[in-house]
């Protein structure tokens, strides 16, 4: 469905007609998608987990990495500097490995290199006016 076409049709229909989308099309249907097919992504912290090695997409289904022993997802708290998706992408050359991570808390001006592994409880706090760059290949465990 072309959203521009739908917007064009809706724009031509007057508000007085009180039409909804189903009245504009002869054939319409709804899809039910099981939760195993997706993870809700509301924040960049959710995006971080989805893009990590914790999940893979196999035949249209999200599969959890069997190497992770903890049944719950790690807690991810990213500073407001990471809220914008473009800023988030710039701050990560690649998403770190989080299979053995329990929690991550990042505040301040922090940048991540490639092939980083996070394990246990990791907190990274850059002071105001300070920039922290996590070098490529770094392993941070309970730090």
| DSSP summary, beta strand count | 8
- Summarize the biggest pleated sheet: 4 strands, parallel
The overall pLDDT, averaged over residues, is: 85
Topology as H/E string? HHHEEEHEEEEE
Strand order of the largest sheet: 3-4-6-8
The first-level CATH class name of the domain at 43-141: Mainly Beta
From the spread of the alpha carbons, the general shape counts as: elongated
- The CATH topology of the domain at 43-141 is UDP N-Acetylglucosamine Acyltransferase, domain 1
The value of Rg in angstroms is 21 Å
CATH architecture of the domain at 43-141: 3 Solenoid
The share of residues in helices is 10-25%
Termini Cα gap: 49 Å
Q: List the total number of helices.
A: 4
State the low-pLDDT regions, or none.
none
Specify the CATH homologous superfamily of the domain at 43-141: Hexapeptide repeat proteins
Structural class by secondary-structure content: alpha/beta
Family: Belongs to the UDPGP type 1 family.
InterPro entries: Trimer_LpxA-like_sf, UDPGP_fam, UDPGP_trans
GO molecular function: UTP:glucose-1-phosphate uridylyltransferase activity
Protein name: UTP--glucose-1-phosphate uridylyltransferase
């Amino acid at each position: 469905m072309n959203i521009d076409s739908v917007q064009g049709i809706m724009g031509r229909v007057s508000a007085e007609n009180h039409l909804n989308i189903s009245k504009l099309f002869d054939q319409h249907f709804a899809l039910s998608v099981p939760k195993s097919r997706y993870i809700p992504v509301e924040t960049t912290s959710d995006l971080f987990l989805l893009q990590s090695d914790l999940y893979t997409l196999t035949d249209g289904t999200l599969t959890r990495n069997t190497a992770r022993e903890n049944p719950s997802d790690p807690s991810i708290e990213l500073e407001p500097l990471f809220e914008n998706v473009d800023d988030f992408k710039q701050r990560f050359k690649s998403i770190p490995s989080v299979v053995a991570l329990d929690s991550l808390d990042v505040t301040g001006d922090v940048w991540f290199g490639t092939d980083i592994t996070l394990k246990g409880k990791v907190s990274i706090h850059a002071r105001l006016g300070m920039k922290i760059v996590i070098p490529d290949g770094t392993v941070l465990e309970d730090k």
